[in-house]
From TrEMBL:
InterPro entries assigned: PA_dom_sf (IPR046450), PA_domain (IPR003137), Peptidase_M28 (IPR007484), Peptidase_M28B (IPR039373), TFR-like_dimer_dom (IPR007365), TFR-like_dimer_dom_sf (IPR036757), TfR1/2_PA (IPR037324)
Pfam families: PA, Peptidase_M28, TFR_dimer
Gene Ontology cellular component terms for the protein in this record: external side of plasma membrane; melanosome
Membrane protein topology class: Single-pass type II membrane protein
Predominant cellular place of this UniProt entry's protein: membrane
Protein known as: Transferrin receptor protein 1
PANTHER family to which the protein is assigned, alphabetical: N-ACETYLATED-ALPHA-LINKED ACIDIC DIPEPTIDASE, TRANSFERRIN RECEPTOR PROTEIN 1
Region of interest: Disordered: 43-66
Transmembrane intervals: 76-96
UniProt GO BP: intracellular iron ion homeostasis; receptor internalization; transferrin transport
Domain Transferrin receptor-like dimerisation: 586-673
Residues covered by the PA domain: 224-285
Subunit (UniProt): Homodimer; disulfide-linked.
């Protein structure tokens, strides 16, 4: 009987397969993922846009591993034989169970996930999705959110400060109170702070008011140049200036805040050899006092720019390095009052249509002339600071080493009420709500949930990115999506001024801050619960089909040669996505192993869209659809425009190389989505 027991055990104890980690975090500068997620109540009656199924209550039945099922006439006889076989096996199991009953427990007490050993899948019953939705809405209360807002509000909690550390300790205490496994990690990062000598801006030799704000990671130097107004500093804004034969070389460029990040504005100006950039908040975009200072950073990247691609641990000996995203020119923020003093006196040509709708009311903005000399003096100091990231985890009952990450920025310049306090308060309240659902209502999440409080977010998601780099090179969502290829979503209140207080936010929300915060918390909670409740991840890989097709159409309209390769790669992705939808439609979605195989294929997509042909040090955001750099499809379109326009920057040989690498990246993604090697579609 022992031998029979061993044989039966081998039949039913398959090792679970693994799939890529999935994380849910915050985004940077409004970038949106093209991953689709459905949260409506009718999801119990369908299987998302990946392909609907008929298993309307799929999530509450016990499930056992089996191979991917394809229903066909040939399998009917197999089913009959299998039933008879299982009938016989059932007697043996019953006999053996009466003699000796062994139960396997899932234990995963270590918060470090790479130490969690695979366990045998057991049947896990959980609440219906409708029950979970109702519980979340009931337990996530404005009263608790308001309590958290008061507790975590702080006048000063800049990254690495005592105020930042005090908040970290509070959050850690909360997580422990909820019964969560907790841990922290430390990083020693290099950041900029204002020096003992204030940064200064001079116009025609005279100091223009007091300069209080600053931009971290600006080049530290003093430069002079003629003023040039460039609207928002977008690439199209500079093209409009060039169309007027206005040279940017050597100019001090004045641009409005908004529409794109400070770093992108500076990078655009630097690419045209501007000498410096001044960024101001125009009243048309910002309802703030005229002397309100702005803060930010100008590193075109995330994480510590002096350890690109690897984590900033203490005493770590790495060769001297710095990110290619650090600007070579100084950049500085100025107030509305300073900007008005300068721009009201600019001479030169009148600005293009649509550029004069701001602070100089009923006055056409001038672009500036050679006599409008501006001096920019940046004296920031580069220092090293220790930062802490705080983590709490709710262990999954089935796949403990597969996890969702909910993250919130903890630090801020000034009070940072909208920037960090609201997010931190919601993070803690969601942790309390979900742990309470587990303790008191019988909720059993299939996958783990990691709650993360990041530091140094104001310096470019440093905490989040540094934590990613121990995880391996595979605002906070942007590095997850484009640096590490992890599906991510993000939303937030935004503010970049020292007036980021609770009163300011209340005025902006018409005194509905609590109501909006609760709504935001419910969205995050529903997304999280859906991802840890269902067998199948609700991510629609077909969404990228239209994105790729759009880029291919743009390229085809500009070049005829070599387009067959790109069309073939696009077709491979289309067929792979359609095949996955078909596999979902014809699969038993109550079967854990089938869903795990499908989830593997879904989770390969984002990582496969990271270009393997560029260095993370030189091109931080390697995603060819959502990233930035010469490897992206958007860069291919721009390069084609430059070639057709006969620009000096155009290089046909370089374009051919970029074209080939981008094409094969798409084909590689299609291969990964197809699944097994025999399903790959390599026709190029």
């Amino acid at each position: 009987m022992d031998q029979a027991r061993t044989t039966i055990s081998k039949i039913f104890n398959g090792e679970p397969r693994s799939y890529t980690r999935f994380n849910l975090t915050q985004n940077m500068e409004g970038d949106n993922s093209h991953v689709e997620m459905k949260l409506s109540s009718d999801m119990d009656d369908e299987v998302d846009a990946n392909g609907g199924g008929e298993n309307t209550n799929q999530h509450n039945h016990p499930y056992y591993p089996s191979k991917l099922n394809q229903r066909s006439p040939k399998t009917i006889c197999g089913f009959v034989i299998g039933i008879l076989f299982l009938f016989i096996i059932g007697y043996l199991i019953g006999y053996l169970s009466n003699r000796n009953t062994d139960k396997t427990e899932i234990k995963s007490n270590c918060p470090v996930f790479n130490e969690i050993a695979p366990v045998r899948a057991e049947a896990v019953y959980s609440l219906d999705w409708s029950d979970l939705r109702a519980l979340l809405k009931k337990k996530l209360t404005t009263l608790n959110i308001n309590t958290n807002l008061r507790e975590f509000s702080s006048a000063s909690h800049q990254a690495g400060s005592t105020g930042d550390e005090a908040l970290a300790n509070k959050i850690m205490g909360k997580f422990k109170t909820f019964g969560m496994s907790t841990w922290t990690d430390e990083h020693y990062v290099k950041i900029h702070e204002p020096g003992s000598s204030n940064n200064r801006v001079l116009f025609r030799g005279n100091v223009v008011e007091t300069t209080e704000g600053y931009l971290a990671y600006s080049a530290i130097k003093t430069v002079q140049g003629a003023a040039l107004y460039a609207h928002y500093g977008r690439a199209e804004d500079f093209r409009r200036l060039q169309d007027r034969n206005i040279d940017v070389n050597g100019k001090v460029v004045l641009v409005r805040a908004g529409l794109l990040s400070f770093a992108e504005k500076v990078a655009n100006a630097a690419s045209l050899n501007a000498s410096a950039v001044l960024i101001y908040p125009d009243p048309v975009n910002y309802s703030i006092k005229e002397d309100t200072a702005l803060f930010g950073h100008v590193h075109l990247g995330t994480g510590d720019p002096y350890t690109p691609g690897f984590p900033s641990f203490n005493h770590t000996q790495f060769p001297p390095a710095q990110s290619s995203g650090l600007p070579s020119i100084p950049a500085q923020t100025i107030t509305i009052k300073q900007a008005t003093a300068i721009m009201s006196k600019l001479g030169g040509r009148t600005s293009p249509d649509g550029w004069s709708d701001g602070m100089l009311r009923d006055t056409m903005y001038s672009l500036g002339d050679e006599g409008d000399i501006i001096t920019v003096e940046v004296n920031n100091v580069l220092i090293q600071k220790k930062i802490h990231n705080v983590f709490g985890v709710i262990k999954g009952y089935m796949d403990a080493d597969r996890y969702i990450v909910i993250g919130a920025q903890r630090d801020a310049w000034g009070p940072g009420y909208a920037r960090s306090t609201v997010g931190t308060s919601l993070l803690v309240e969601l942790a309390r709500t979900i742990t309470d659902m587990i303790k008191n209502d019988g909720f059993k999440p299939k996958r783990s949930i990691v709650f993360a409080s990041w530091s140094a977010g104001e310096f470019g998601s440093v905490g989040a990115t540094e934590w990613l780099e121990p995880m391996g090179l595979s605002h906070s969502a942007y590095p997850f999506q484009t640096f590490s290829g992890i599906p991510s979503i993000s939303f937030r209140f935004t503010s970049a001024s020292i007036q980021d207080t609770d009163q300011t936010l209340e005025r902006y929300t018409s005194y509905n801050t609590l109501k909006l915060a609760k709504t935001a918390g419910e969205v995050v909670g529903l997304v999280t619960l859906r991802l840890v409740h269902d067998h199948l991840l609700k991510l629609n890989v077909a969404k990228y089909t239209s994105v790729i097709r759009s880029y291919v159409s743009q390229i085809r309209s500009k070049v005829e040669s070599c387009q067959t390769w790109l069309l073939s790669a696009q077709g491979s992705y289309d067929r792979a996505a359609s095949a996955l939808i078909s596999a979902i439609r014809n699969s038993d979605l109550d079967d854990m192993e089938q869903c795990r195989i499908i989830n593997n294929r879904i989770m390969r997509v984002e990582g496969s869209l990271l270009s393997p042909y560029v260095s993370p040090r030189e091109s931080l955001f390697r995603h060819i659809l959502l990233g930035s750099g010469s490897h992206t499809l958007a860069a291919l379109v721009d390069h084609l425009e430059a070639i057709k326009g006969g620009h000096e920057s155009a290089d046909i040989d370089q374009f051919k190389n970029q074209f080939a690498l981008a094409t094969w990246t798409i084909q590689g993604c299609a291969n990964a989505l197809a699944g097994e090697v025999w399903d790959m579609d390599n026709e190029i």
